[in-house]
Each structure stands twice: as C-alpha cells, then as structure tokens.
Amino acid sequence: MKGSYDVVIIGGGVHGLSIAYYLGQMDKDLRVAVLDKGYLGGGASARSTAIIRSNYLTAEAIPFFRESHKLYQNLGSELEFNLLFDEMGRLDIGHTESSVYWLRLRAEFNQLLDVDSRIISPEEIKEIVPQIDLRAGKSLPIMAALYHPPAGVVRHDAVVWGFARGADRAGVEIHPFTEVTGITCKGDRVTGVETSSGPIATGIVVNATAGWSSTIAKMVGLDIPINTFPLQACVTEPVKPFVHTTISSADLHVYVYQTDRGELVIGGPVDPYSTYSQRSTLDMLHELATNTLELLPDLRDINIMRQWAGLCDMTPDYAPIIGFVDGIDGFLLNCGWGTWGFKAAPASGKTTAQLIITGKTPELIKSFGLSRFNDNRLVNERAAAIAAAIH
Ligand SMILES: Cc1cc2nc3c(=O)[nH]c(=O)nc-3n(C[C@H](O)[C@H](O)[C@H](O)COP(=O)(O)OP(=O)(O)OC[C@H]3O[C@@H](n4cnc5c(N)ncnc54)[C@H](O)[C@@H]3O)c2cc1C
Fold first, then answer.
1. 334-363 burial, b for 16+ CB within 10 Å, e for fewer?
2. From ligand 1's centre to the CA of 141, what distance in Å?
C-alpha cells in the first residue's frame, strides 16, 4: 500500500469495484486504491440474490436501471469473465386490485420509457409457470402479473471478481483486509484516510460501504438519511428444473427463482428492525417458506439447504445517494443501494467514475444527490421497490 493515491474507494463490494473498474478504463494514469475491511464482495454483494431488472416506476429510476441492464447485457464479454447472466424474465404478481393498479401504472411508465414490460392474465401466468397455484377461494388470489421478459439473474461473485480483475488489469490497487478507521480533513477538504495498515493521503474519498455507509459518513461529521436493515434469503436442495422465470409477490412478501443447478432461491422483505447483525432467523425462514408455498405448493416437501443475511442501506425514498457532498470537498457518496443495488452496479460505477473525472454530474444520476433531502425533491421509488416487489 502506498502513502498516497488520487482516489481512495472505501468498500470492495460490487459498487466500489465497479467505480474502480470504470475509473481504470477512463484514466489509466489516475492512482486509485480500493480498501475493504474484509474479503472482496463479503458485504451485501456476495449475499445478493442478484436479480437484474429495469421495470421501475419513476422517471428518474427507470432510465438509470435501464442503462444498467443494458451494460449487464455486454458486461461478460467486456470483462472477459463468464457472469452467467440468464435473462429468464420476471413476473410481479398482483393479488389485490390496488396492487394490480400499481402494476398497471408501472407497465405504462415502462412502455413510455422503452422498457419491455406488460400486464398479463392469470392464464398467461399459468403458461409461463404451469405449477403456479391459481385455485380460486384463496385469501390472496392471483389476479394479474407485470411481465418483464428481459429481467434476469447474474452470478453475484462472478460480477465482483470480474470488476476486480478488470480494475486490477487497469492498474487499480485493491487492498482487502484493510479497515478504514478515520478520515482526515483540513478545513472543509478531505486530505486522507486512517487505516488498519497506516495513513493514506488522498484528495478524493468514495464511500461505497452500503450497510456501513452511515458509519463512514460520521467520520467526516455527516449524518446521512440511511438506516441499516438485514435482508435474508435461503436456498433449497436442487430439484428438476420447473421454474424458468423469477416470480415475485409484494402482497406475499416473497420472491423465488430456480438456479441452473436446480436449487430454488427464495427471498423476501428486510427484517423489521435495524441492526448490524448478519445472522439469519427462524422467524424469517418460516415466513419465506409459508409464503412461497402460497405460490408453489409443490415445494412443500423440499428441504432448505442454506439461509443467510446481508446488510442493506435503506433510504427514505428507496433511491440511491450518489454525488459529492456540499461543504466537504472531496467526499463522495455512493450508497443507499438498499435491497435493489446489485442490478445498479454497472451504471453506478460508470456514472460515478465520470463524475470523478469530469467534476460534472452525469444526467442519469442528477436526481440522486444528497441535497434532495433538504430540497424536498425525493425520488419516491418506493412503489416499485415495495408495492411490486422488494427487489
Ligand atoms: C440477501 C440479499 C439479496 C439481495 N438481492 C438483490 C437482488 O436480487 N437484486 C439487486 O439488485 N440487489 C439485491 N440486493 C442488494 C445488493 O446486493 C446490494 O445493494 C449491493 O450488493 C451493495 O453493494 P455495495 O458494493 O454497495 O456494498 P457491499 O457489497 O455491502 O460492500 C460494502 C463493503 O464495504 C466494506 N466496509 C465497510 N466498512 C468498511 C471500513 N470501515 N473500511 C473498509 N471497508 C469497509 C465491507 O466490508 C463491504 O465489503 C440483495 C441484498 C441482500 C443482502
């Protein structure tokens, strides 16, 4: 580790490494270091179920996630790394009239902004997933779904390692097991970071630490509107392939898809309390299993193999915070990725790198600055994140 760099990125998750990769592509002479207190991807990134989609709700989020989705489509070849990106499609199921209303609204906005998504009937849902339980008389009947054919799933650790290798090849230094313990400032300007391996001088510090981002912001005396919640998921033993799409139900608080190995990956909402613990709980396992069986009763005799949790950095408006902070020169936030950030990594990395190099905020992320919380310009992507699925 050197005594100084032009840019220090705190956090070796998918966002920190994506920023590093694009910085390396855009300016080979820039001296960049990524520091992580643990192993690469060991935060939320390697715990992610890594669903990629762009069927959001707002005029701010749809273009951003659409761009990220496009970048994912070519990312494997660009990084020369097999990311196992499988565009298996996605169904957001509506079980009540009010959910179907929101799904319809999303379909309209998606189509206006060139995202392939549409409302389909229960019969069409059954054609896509023959095992889905359409029986009448259930308390939450299946009324319709928002169908988003290009949605998919990517291999989370491959994305992390692909970005890391690409950044490394471009001359970025990556230092895992190096904890940032403090940030030094002179007046209102960042001058460096204190780490478990000694001090580093730098003019730009990027906070890409997701669930820990408010602890890093506190190092420069900044309170950011982020609360950290655990998010859990689990995986079953492998069975013959029978689900060929991702299925999500906000009313049931559950989503499920089947991997190439035949395992069913199941996830749901964040835990109902804020904590830094990454332990999974029996309560959540019970909730996920019960709710999955409402959709796919054939899974009733399947065993769960593993369950885990990761930390999510939730913002009040379910949109990220990206940009330099007014009044603390050189301090850049890239956080607020909550439960939906894996799909955002390519667009987030590229636009953040452009911002660092040009000093100008790219159009795609203009709405995501921290100042929106003071200026009352919240993005309100909550409807897409919660009313139609957590991810
Ligand atoms: C169970 C689960 C399922 C998910 N499913 C999806 C999904 O299907 N689709 C989707 O788009 N998103 C999903 N997400 C969200 C997504 O995974 C995250 O938003 C994304 O991975 C965040 O990446 P990151 O790089 O910002 O943070 P992280 O991967 O959490 O990386 C932050 C890093 O900062 C490091 N760090 C913290 N403090 C310090 C310090 N003081 N010094 C040095 N390093 C430090 C940590 O060690 C960590 O490695 C899911 C998340 C979870 C937990």
1. bbbbbbbbbbbbbbbbbbbbbbbeeeebbe
2. 34
208 lines ligand 1 (CB under 6 A): yes
* Residue 96: strand, helix, or coil: coil
Cα of 216 vs its chain's centroid, Å? 19
pLDDT tops 90 at residue 366: yes
Element (H, E) at 275: none
Backbone angles phi, psi at 42, to 5 degrees: -70, -5
Q: Whose CA is nearest to atom 52 of ligand 1?
A: 48
Q: Is 11 in the pocket of ligand 1 (CB under 6 A)?
A: yes
Question: 138: CA distance to ligand 1 center in Å?
Answer: 37
Q: Is the pLDDT of residue 23 over 80?
A: yes
For 189-251, give the DSSP string. Answer: EEEEEEETTEEEE-SEEEE--GGGHHHHHHTTT---S-EEEEEEEEEEPP------SEEEETT
Query: What are the angstrom distances between the C-alpha of 196 and each of 35, 209, 211, 251?
Result: 10, 16, 20, 45
- Phi/psi at 17 (nearest 5 deg)? -75, -35
- The pTM of this model reads 0.97
Tokens matching residue 234: 């689990």
Distance from Cα 338 to the centre of ligand 1, integer Å = 8
Strand-strand pairing, 32-35 and 173-175: parallel
Q: Is any ligand 1 atom within 6 A of the Cβ of residue 37? A: yes
| Separation of CA 365 and ligand 1 centre (Å) | 19
Q: Check if the beta carbon of residue 60 is closer than 8 Å to that of residue 383.
A: no
Average pLDDT, the chain: 96
E strands within the chain? 7-10, 32-35, 51-52, 90-94, 118-120, 144-147, 152-153, 173-175, 180-186, 189-195, 198-201, 204-207, 227-236, 246-249, 254-258, 264-270, 304-314, 321-324, 331-335
42 CA distance to ligand 1 middle (Å): 8
pLDDT by residue (tens digit) across 313-334?
A: 999 999 999 999 999 999 999 9
Q: Among the listed ranges 154-163, 257-266, 274-283, 378-387, which one has the minimum average pLDDT value?
A: 378-387
Could you tell me which residues are beta bridge partners of residue 258?
264
